[in-house]
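One-letter codes give the sequence; each number marks local geometry. A record appears below:


***
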Amino acid sequence: MKAKTAVKILSELDPEESIVIAMWQKEAFEDIIKDDDDWECIAQSITDELDWGWVQEDMAQHIEKFQS
């Protein structure tokens, strides 16, 4: 996702709403990215194709643990 897309999505939220955001930039993967020009395609592919369902499950487990 491009930063401008994230900014647009965030701008539509109530500024007082609490949210959870995970963000990684190219620098976190510099040791494995072979061509800087690939990062835009890689980032979009991750956004579109990676199954993030396990993250929500982990968060739900954390919430349950936090609340007990």
